């Protein structure tokens, strides 16, 4: 800590910091304009100049590092005059005239230039304004750039380069001036811009703004800190609220996003809340007309309880089931599974992890003892030596983690990408293994063999902390690089090189996602990755681990809260008598012992009459489950279907009763993100006619004869904590308090004074010794044949989310793209006579759809890919409901199709 003197005060400054940071840390005002901490420091505006003893000229505080013994003055007349002159030059160049007028600027009142002029007493420009006549670029649906207002500070460039790490917004010298090239003009679609808005958030003036700003002025709004409702990155932001409506978002410095947001969080996270399509009254199907008709809450809830009681009376509690909403809060999900278990009397309760990361929960529980991400987002992206990403399209599915992965690579981390497609990040990879879909286990076994043969197995770690290595090593012996190259369609040398790169690195996290799990061999795929990490001794320490990136905002929480057929909250087994007794005691009711049916098994059970009543809380299986015809016929076989959702989804259209629930922006609660971090959501608005989901479940429980008092979300979390060791120390009070300070708490957090656990399995695995799996490679359930010669994979694009119930309510996201397509390899397209943009028919054994061809080399010959978001040509008419043996995830990532020109 160098000691320096600022304005006569002794200040202990941190080594490596700049004068501006040292002054600010000491509470001394130094104005800045072009400087933005961690984002940009070009040192061009000179409003931060200070005097330093021994330096003849004033120095910019933002660019000057502290040195022991420095004597600094921030408030001399010379400093003041220089700052005022600098600011005068800036505003003279700000393009103010009769058409660019502060009053009409969207940033009026929230402009750093205005604030600084006031602080320094600069009232009007005194230099002649240079002529500026560049057109306003406003073709991007969310962002616009007015070059006339641009002061050349380059904070936007810093934001695009250092936060978004996208490098699409650049600065160039035009004569004496810095000109900004913003990608928001007529060709915006052709640019790589992700519309994340980080640049607009960084711009101190109205030059780059979010168009949303037209709806409010900063003095008219309030802010509500919350968690993004889309992916499990768990980004923190404020909802900006004006007159009972959300008008915008503002990024916060959350632990996982660190000031960033992606386009969905920034611009697609609130239109749906106040969309005119929201359900605002219960609907009950009129048995005579067959129509859904508005009903009172009393009538609808009575009808729900009556029918569930009737069905349970006729065929028993296990003839009903409930699906929980992983988009909703922990507190809601806890109450839903309590309703299923305590009021319905069944363990038939599940959540969308079943069609997603269930293999992670099962696979990692088998090998490590806990089915969750081992490390934290910051830990695996700050200083890794090598990142290995398997089946994770992180830039589109978890964009804010993607930005941090890009940052790691730019800082020098090596990158291995294992993905059948040329996803964008693959172009930055040192090694891209473009493997054939469905061959992860062969790849991983070959990778492990290569590690062992290169002498890179960590013998001490294996000896001390694991079991089953000998059998595993014997099993992988047949996975020679040549054999694996043939199975996976990759280069044998690349496989060995990847294993050596990973094995030699000290800090090397494995990041994986659905490209691994959504297979009939998903659980084996997950275990085979955990084999690699154990073999290399890369678990239980910083910068390593096996890191499944969970999908839905609160799917980690949905599993934690026990919305799964074999587990109570906290993965406590329903089959364990002691555990059951604890819950029976707490809930005052006897509980079923046998694990329930998994959601994907329920569809078959509906068809054969074993499941007759279903309560769906916030899921749209008609759009999202595999093999739509199968799902439709199952749901139509039901005696009674209830859907609690925000919208009349395709699934809700089939229901007997539809209940209007509340979104994340209308309720208290918590989400648990992918790194096990429990963070708060808070109500910002009220939508008339809706009810909190916990209220709905409580009403139904009482009507079914289980006495459940109405509890607040905070009280529900207290109940969770009292019954769930890993959440034992988590409460709303603590999350809202100064100690946690908005950083959330990562489970395991067993006691109210426990700090939470950023890195798991330090010193020992949850299950004691880690165990190697000896799963062999098995082919996918459905392989290409003469009739269906192409492999179809399915997945996601950046700007829409799952069934689009929420994202499709934001016009700007639809403008980026709102219809389905199929990625075809050039060679296949040529053979089929299909050109880019042509309409094509895609058929599988289960159905057919019409969509648009996108022809490129992104997929390999013989392989195709489709998003599943869109109603037109939804991929799930085609997908295969073949299930993984262990956890029954459907094989969304591989089925056989035929493509033809329409
Ligand atoms: N924009 C956006 N973000 C989302 C979502 C969304 O709908 N939209 N959904 C959220 C949810 S619920 C989830 S679960 C996550 C999912 O996030 P991801 O799993 O990252 O997304 P996907 O597009 O399903 O698939 C990931 C990758 O798997 C690759 N892949 C396909 N088959 C194989 C294979 O056999 N082996 C390997 N190694 N790779 C394969 C695909 O080419 C693709 O690049 O995203 C979450 N985030
Ligand atoms: N072909 C193919 N299909 C897939 C996948 C794939 O990769 N390929 N991925 C699968 C995966 S990983 C997943 S996770 C599933 C997702 O499948 P779903 O869970 O069915 O998809 P979502 O669109 O997220 O649906 C969430 C629903 O919850 C409602 N909702 C949101 N918040 C709340 C709330 O607070 N309260 C209430 N009551 N309702 C709420 C929304 O309106 C929406 O209708 O899709 C799966 N389907
Ligand atoms: S919106 Fe994001 S990607 Fe596009 S220019 Fe701005 S910072 Fe860069
Ligand atoms: S657009 Fe804004 S942030 Fe970018 S250089 Fe101009 S004034 Fe600075
Ligand atoms: S990365 Fe995920 S959590 Fe973060 S803003 Fe985007 S959608 Fe929301
Ligand atoms: Mo998911």
TrEMBL record:
Return the protein name: Formate dehydrogenase, alpha subunit
Q: Which domain of life is it from?
A: Bacteria
GO annotations of cellular component type: membrane
Q: Where is the 4Fe-4S ferredoxin-type domain?
A: 141-170, 184-213
Q: Where is the 4Fe-4S Mo/W bis-MGD-type domain?
A: 221-276
Write down a Pfam family by its short name: Molybdop_Fe4S4
2Fe-2S ferredoxin-type domain span = 1-78
Naturally occurring in which organism (per UniProt) = Adlercreutzia caecimuris B7
| SMART domains assigned | Molybdop_Fe4S4 (SM00926), NADH-G_4Fe-4S_3 (SM00929)
- Alphabetical list of PROSITE patterns matching this protein: 2FE2S_FER_2 (PS51085), 4FE4S_FER_1 (PS00198), 4FE4S_FER_2 (PS51379), 4FE4S_MOW_BIS_MGD (PS51669), COMPLEX1_75K_1 (PS00641), MOLYBDOPTERIN_PROK_1 (PS00551)
Family membership noted in the UniProt record: In the C-terminal section; belongs to the prokaryotic molybdopterin-containing oxidoreductase family.
Task: Please provide the record's keywords in A-Z order.
Answer: 2Fe-2S, 4Fe-4S, Iron, Iron-sulfur, Metal-binding, Oxidoreductase, Repeat
Output the Gene Ontology terms for molecular function.
Answer: 2 iron, 2 sulfur cluster binding; 4 iron, 4 sulfur cluster binding; formate dehydrogenase (NAD+) activity; metal ion binding; molybdopterin cofactor binding; NADH dehydrogenase (ubiquinone) activity; NADH dehydrogenase activity
Annotated GO biological processes are:
ATP synthesis coupled electron transport; formate metabolic process
Co-factor requirement = [4Fe-4S] cluster; [2Fe-2S] cluster
InterPro entries, per the entry: 2Fe-2S_ferredoxin-like_sf (IPR036010), 2Fe-2S_ferredoxin-type (IPR001041), 4Fe4S_Fe-S-bd (IPR017896), 4Fe4S_Fe_S_CS (IPR017900), Asp_de-COase-like_dom_sf (IPR009010), CT_Formate-Dh_H (IPR041925), Formate_Dh-H_N (IPR041924), Formate_DH_asu (IPR006478)
